[in-house]
Fold these 2 entries.
Entry 1:
Amino acid sequence: MNRRIFPLLAVVVVLGLGYSPVAAQTSGGSTYSSLNIGDLQPTTSVAGQGLAGVESAMPMPGNLNSLNPAGWADLRSVTLAAGMNFQQYQVSTASQSLYQNSTRLQGFSVGFPFSETHGITAAILFRPYSTVNYRSQLTQRIPIAGTDTALSTITKQGSGGVSQAVIGSSFKPIEQLTVGAGLDWYFGAIESRSNVEFDNSSLNPATYLTSDQYRGVGGRFGMQFRPVEGLQLGATMQTSATLNRVRLLINNSLDASGQIVDTTGTDTADLSVPQRLTVGVSYQMGRSVLGTEFSTQDWGNSAMTSATAATRYGLAYQYTASESINAEGFDRWTFRAGASYEDTYYRTPNGAISQLGFSLGVGFPLAAYNRLNANPAMDVALQFGTRGTTDNGLTREAFGKLSVELSLSELWFLKVRR
């Protein structure tokens, strides 16, 4: 083992324990993330994002699968990875549009392959399950007393999200079958703020803050089956979970004499996260891999008034790096592309929201391979697409997302030949 990898492992663990999906230096993002618990993240590895989220049945020997724990058996070296994400949104209504962007941590992961023969890999992942990042402003008249109204400017903004800490392992009972399981611990906070300012200077401004803390436990199970050479079937089931929500409500305003009026209240509630089923298939021809995937998750009974059943379809292509130790240049690179269509879990009074997306990705080493040292590598993914519509008073969002993940891998557990 290379001792230089231990400080990096400590950094990943410490950052993971303090991990939060709150965006850094954010000025806004998706308006729809103000609904429910925000934007759901089907996949968080940058390799998976380059494949448009298609991971359940895809072979990924150099990356830790962020969806299917059975896929962890592909890992051949101890691997540490951490990623960042930059996203740009164009948010449009029927009459206007604006640009918003944010940068955030994408997650941390570490995988320990103990046995290639039996496919045993232990893994720990810290990943966003949902993200909230929005900012909007509107001008409208609101009632103040009796039948009187006043012109006001209302600014709404929110940040945070629900995260997952996943710990589990994979196992290969027979050569054609790999299975995996993991424990999912949900945690996180979502903060929503509304500021109200009046054009009439005699009316005092007010601020309304809602802070939600979430905790819960779930699990995931996965399998990958290879009935014939080149063909791989994959399935992942994330179990249902109950999220305990503790809500803090704070209302700040000024009375007629200019004194601050601060009203605070708390309440608790349980929210249901429904199980999510994902199935996929891939076929490998030499270094080329073609994969497709379908997932479904019914949020209709989650007690969230703006949630409905969600379905997602994905298609991906991967050109895998050569495994030859003599490979040079682009032969050591992995290229990815994908497309997806999703009926999201967002339900508005004016209609449901669908999303179409495309992705490109690449993974490449940052140094020559060395069995005795930690080998750095980088994965880059570019996602772009659109969702929603400007019809019926809705919002259309065009987005672009750039994700970068750095990883270190090293052989630790070697058989001693005698």
Entry 2:
Amino acid sequence: MDGNLRREIILDNYQNPMNRGLVDDDSYLKVNTNSESCIDNLDFMMKIEGGKVKDIHFDGEACAISTSASSILIRSLIGKSVEEAKEILINYQKMINEEDYDKELLGELNVYDELQPNRKNCALLPSVAVEKMFRSLEDGKKC
């Protein structure tokens, strides 16, 4: 991907993130995630209905990479079945960790395929939050 296009997508999703702001609804799974190495501290909420990701919201303080990755990941997961969403998460995490992954599955998330090593945790933070919520769903617990 062209570097200018990559920067434009990241900047746009940082300045105008999708679904930023939490909702007051107990039917959502909720989790907080933060980075030990920087300022990133985000709350995530996800609603699952009929085996599909119905909605995801986030809020908090975070850098451009964490904020934009949250926005793009949310857009990539809403409307997907839980299994499809998990597959996207697995491939996203593989991409960030420089392992083999399905590039076609990730769409716009591919903007993070050439991150500097010190930014990888920032990009992984939203996927870790969603993964926690899926685990709690499997365990039958609320986050």
